[in-house]
Amino acid sequence: MMAVTGLNQPDFRTISDFRKRHLAALSDLFVQVLRLCRAAGLVQFGHVAVDGTKLKANASRHKAMSYGRMKTVEPALAVEVEKWLSRAAEADTAEDNEHGADRRGEEMPDWIADKQRRLEAIRAAKAALEAEAADPPDPNDESGPGASSGMRWQGRVLRGADGGPPDRAQKNFTDPDSRILPTRDGFVQGYNGQIAVDASHQVIVAHRLVTTAADYRGLAPLLDDVQAHLGRKPREVSGDAGFATETNLAALEQRRIKGYLAPGRARHGEAHAAGRRKLTKRPLMSAMAERLRRAGRRSRYRLRKQVVEPVFGQVKHARGFRQFLLRGLDQVRGEWAMICTAHNLLKLAMARG
Asked: Most CB atoms within 10 A, among 12, 67, 82, 127?
């Protein structure tokens, strides 16, 4: 752009407006760039590693409110707003008597409007949680935001004593689609970005973004996206303990893909560890644990860390992308697609340079 226009730099608002208008089209560029990477020999389909990382939303977790606090704050705030509105009406009447009724000035003062808007936001969030409690979203449907923070525990729907939302349920006022997710450093208000990376040149061959912390549901969709994008499936796939389930291992067998999924969290100096997970009633998990144990340090599972984790390092540390700029699940998914596209473009540029 700058080369064509004689090094003129577009204003940041111009870039922002362009992105807003064409976000869907920019998201679709991922597949086109990926196919260029394949044509350049950067994708070999030998080994693909999958992983997920938590990224902050454009919202603070301190801008969320629990349902229990909503029940307390809403009536108190409603009383306060009603008092202010009464005072404002009295002031209007007094000013009309003093200056005449034909003078305008009925606009709501900012000191009232802010509280009024806050009350409306609390009521809307409270109503949304109550509607969700009455009709919980399908836990297997990840096309939408899914359950709100605090509405589920280990796959089970939680409800209060009255059948409504539990007091711990939360809604964020800034980005209601984002969720509170656990990380190694505590909790963040954010999203879970997942990728599949080809081992030959660390090209991202599939991506997805969800609001849930768990990764295990992402394995099959990521591999199916590789097939859909490029017409081929990888020969091998590796993933950490978050992807290791009996269902996922069965899905790999069905797709004839050799899997290396750790049945437990790896310990320092070990290829894998079954940990405390009981595998006696999970034959595929048990067989996987035995396969990794026998291979030891020569296991193909060792490729996972050196393939997918450096990509997250390049995105989050080298390029400084740790927080989304857009809000709302659809918008953030488009932004994540752009981030993955930019990564592949850089790989393509370096290969052709």
From this structure: 67
